[in-house]
Amino acid sequence: MFFEKHGTKAIIMARFVPFVRTFAPFAAGIGEMNYKKYLLFDIIGGVLWIGGLTTAGYLLGEVEFIRKHIDLVCLGIIGLSVLPILITMVKNKLASK
């Protein structure tokens, strides 16, 4: 049921969240998501992940603040990666009340 409604978004977003990336293929299989559909959106997520991070790394690597504060930047990236999941969880919690 979940993968019928949110499967395509979940597969793409899973590329950007390390813990979720590990379990998304298993969840798609258990949820009986169509393999061709899964494969298509997994490839799309991979292309977005690789292209986005490569481009961001190239462009942001030239910014002096980022060079000096890479540890804070990494924490910010982790926070941004988890943010869509947290927002969805809060929306679902509020909608169920």
Structural features, described:
The chain has helices at residues 2-14, 18-30, 35-60, 64-68, 70-96. Helices cover 87% and strands 0% of the residues. It is built from five helices and no strands. It has one domain (2-96). The chain starts with a helix and ends with a helix.
Which features does this protein show?
flat, single chain, 87% helix, mainly alpha, 97 residues, 5 helices
Overview in brief:
It is built from five helices and no strands. It has 97 residues and is mainly alpha-helical. The protein has one domain (2-96).
Strand tally: 0
Head-to-tail CA distance between termini: 21 Å
Show unreliable segments. Answer: none
Number of helices: 5
Tell me about the biggest sheet?
none
Number of domains: 1
Mean pLDDT: 86
Instruction: Report the β-strand fraction as a percent range.
Output: under 5%
Along the chain, the helix and strand elements come as HHHHH
Assign an overall shape. Answer: flat
Radius of gyration computed on alpha carbons: 16 Å
What is the SS-derived class? mainly alpha
Topology, element by element:
Blueprint: H1 2-14, H2 18-30, H3 35-60, H4 64-68, H5 70-96
Helix pairs in contact: 1-2, 1-3
